[in-house]
Amino acid sequence: MNDSHIPANSRAERPARAVNAKNMPDEKLAEKLPPQNLEAEQSFLGCLLIDKDALIKVVDLIDEDDFYKDGHRLLFGTIKELFSRHEPIDILSLTNRLEEKNELQNIGGRTYLAHLSNFTATASHVVHYANIIQRKATLRRLQAAASEITELSFKEDEDIEKTLDMAEQKLFSVSQKYMKNVFVPVDRLLADAFERIDELHKQSGKLRGLPTGFPDLDGSSPACKNPILLSLPPAPA
Fold first, then answer.
1. Residues in Cβ contact with 116 at an 8 Å cutoff, skipping those fewer than 6 apart
2. For a Cys-Cys bond, which of 40, 84, 173, 201 suits 132, CB 3.0-4.6 Å?
3. Nearest to 91 by CA among 75, 72, 73
């Protein structure tokens, strides 16, 4: 039966098909969501629960605000709190602390903690998961900054230099949040230094570097010490 055989009043009363996220294809729904990777967040938190030393590797790489899911953000903050108190990071300690803060149900309860601890079999990839979470968080911050900059562009009465300065500050805050200092272990630096000192000692009396063809210059200047080359400008006329 088609609509031509249905009375007009019946057609008018037929409820319209609701258009919501359930009716949308998965790929279209994904386009509407901010950048995030919940599996990486779960794997990351699982690593922290099965390896007491995993947090040490990533504590300077990621913050609570980098997590997309509120429960994950709360859980990571509690893990860092236990770490700062030198308390064990395990399901029992987390459950106890979350109950003290009346936050256990907000992260999914004991069942979800057990699920996280079984989500990954090894903690060897914890840094990789942290990097994924950080990249997704940076993209979300970039989207937020782009939205704020777009709003600034509609304020035509504002001074253009002030607007540009505010836009630069918003982008800079995103890049500053993403960029992390890279620390080199002191033992590696000391090893390189001692190796260099030993090499210089063995070459005592010999040319230390690359010859320039000018003996006097070779003996008085470090201009061609490998891997550094200094360019000397000519003397003024």
1. 42, 45, 46, 49, 75
2. 40
3. 75
DSSP code, position 18: P
CA-closest candidate to residue 78, choices 69, 61, 90, 60: 90
Report yes or no on 18 lying in a domain. Answer: no
- What does the alpha-carbon distance between residue 218 and residue 211 come to, in Å, rounded to a whole number? 6
Residue 46 lies in a domain: yes
Q: Which tens digit of pLDDT belongs to each residue from 153-196?
A: 898 888 999 999 999 999 888 887 777 544 455 666 677 677 76
Find tokens 């008085």 and name the residue.
220
Burial of 219-234, coded b for 16+ CB within 10 Å and e otherwise, reads eeeebbeeeeeeeeee
The CATH number of whichever domain residue 151 belongs to comes to: 1.10.860.10
The residue segments making up the domain with residue 105 are: 35-181
Contact 73, 107 (CB under 8 A): no
- The encoded tokens of residue 223 equal 């201009």
